[in-house]
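Self-study notes.
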Amino acid sequence: MQVVSRTHVGLVRENNEDALLVREPYLFAVADGMGGYAAGEIASRSTVKAFEAATYSLRHEMGEQDIRKIMLDAFDKANTHVFKMAVSNEQYTGMGTTMTALYLADANNAYCCHVGDSRLYLYRNDSLKQLTHDQTFVANLQEKGEITEEEAFVHPQRNILLQALGVEEKVEADFFHFTVQEGDRLLLCSDGLSDMLRKQEIASLVGLPDLVQAADALLEQSLDNGGRDNVSLILLDLTTQGEESCNG
């Protein structure tokens, strides 16, 4: 397996409010914070840190129900931690964060836990599939068939979240299992990437032969298309050859 991660402040924002978790070879997460000055940065980093601490036992072999419980409990703990920070400090009022987390249990089984609109994609046989469902107002409109994918991409309210970690006392995270195979690529990213690149653009770049080149191209094209937000990504190649990583 090869892993490449990238994060960039973008061309408009002053602070990078994204946070990444790369715990090779099995646990990865992207969080995208929001809030007042520096609060979003604190929310995302605190969430990732709390989630990582609460998932330490995942390295022990266990069944799907155990994995489900650990990951959902970790999201709950991270949510509670950030919510308490927000209510106890006026500077942090209203802060919160998305988070999409990936756990690779073995060579065939993967699990995802998700809140907000950061995304997980699967690239297989030259085809890209979004595995997570954006918890947004516009994504729900698209799911109901009220707007098209292209209309959703340019919709002025596309960033209105229905749920985020740390905003409410309780959160309902999505959790699902999926199978992976030799040669798959997985992309975790913040909406700073997915808001700048259409699905076809992402697919063409994720599939570049060299993984480092693919990750750099995804970042660079996001900036070339406007870079209106922080851009963060983790790109994994599940090919068994080439056991190296490149993070930055």
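Second protein, same conventions, sequence then structure:
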Amino acid sequence: MLFVHYPKCSTCRKAKNWLDEHDIEYESRHIVEDNPTSEELQNWHEMSGLPLKRFFNTSGMKYRELKLKDKLPDMDNQEKYDLLATDGMLVKRPVVVGDDFVLVGFKVKEWEEKLL
């Protein structure tokens, strides 16, 4: 399982602690130093079954700086994947990628259902 996170993010730290407390093995990946590629994001999006907007860190400074709230509705999915791949800070985190599922953000109930 892959755990994609930003170490300074408090939600990511809570999620990491949760994984450790439940003895869940994972490979850790720093989302800024090793940003997901456009292809990875497309695969994760398709596996997740979530709307693509859920992959955007809508509360982040970069999102607001780029005025993405106004721009995203006019972009196609490929443009969104390519944009997300330019900067890990645009991606909602943490992201957990399993063999047949993807979790975006840290919601304990969702994580318990998939991981325990």
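Instructor comment on the second fold: Residues 2-115 form a domain with the Glutaredoxin fold (CATH 3.40.30.10).
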